[in-house]
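User: I'm writing a tutorial on reading structure tokens. Could you give me a worked example: one chain, its sequence, then its tokens, then a sentence or two explaining what the tokens reveal?
Assistant: Sure. Here is the example chain.
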Amino acid sequence: MKKTFFFSTISAFWVLSALFVLPANAATIIPISSIQSGDLFRGQTYSSVYYYGADGMRYVFPNDKTYFTWYNNFSSVKWVTDKDLATIQIGGNVTYKPGVKMVKINSDPKVYAVGSDGTLRAIVSEQIAKELYGANWNKQIDDVPDGFFSNYEIGSKIEFASQYSITAEKADASDINTDKNLKSATIISINNTSYEPPTATIESGRAVRWVNNSTTNHSATEWDSVWGSGTLKPGQHFTRYFVEKGTWNYYSKYASKSVMSGAIIVK
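And here are its predicted structure tokens:
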């Protein structure tokens, strides 16, 4: 997994256009508590569609081409209020489903096959592309805007057709949770004067979610302010991925370190 920090915002992304002709006031709005892992959903004002990950974050489809590598239509997209939508952290962008299309970026002539979690593997020759995708291989290439290239990671080159199986890649990416290796987050409850559990041990690449179940404002702030949740009002939550192994100590800015602190041990 390539996550090294949480995403609270995305600086720029394309909005899926003309997804629905149905006005928001005619759509069935469901409570945010009804959204489950694997669901597609959107808010009332903007047409951006999100995937609800197993980690409790929302992942945006940056454009329609990406969306249609995963889904055939928008019939399963659910609607929530803009207010509820804002309560779910953004985890990042959805990348192309492996095996469906080849891609290239505008500033690079290389053609890439897509692997799991947005891994791009350069196809070294037209002959290999033809062996993999057939005689019309050159009609199965999408241009990815340069601004989206950071969503992907460069992997090993494909020098022989036997090094890449379209069927296997599609099967291994049965859904976006599987493709991104998204798993449920470890939950830490923020109480009035403590974190529960006070110490959590997790594997590298896993997420931790702090939920403020207290009656006052709190935070989860790393001791040296390397990272932090900012103010969490009662009922609010914050999720962060941990990749670097070691121990992370944190505290609430609304209490003394000696009174309210916790630790995340990453193995």
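What the tokens reveal: The CA atoms of residues 190 and 213 lie 6 Å apart. Confidence is low (pLDDT under 50) at residues 3-22.
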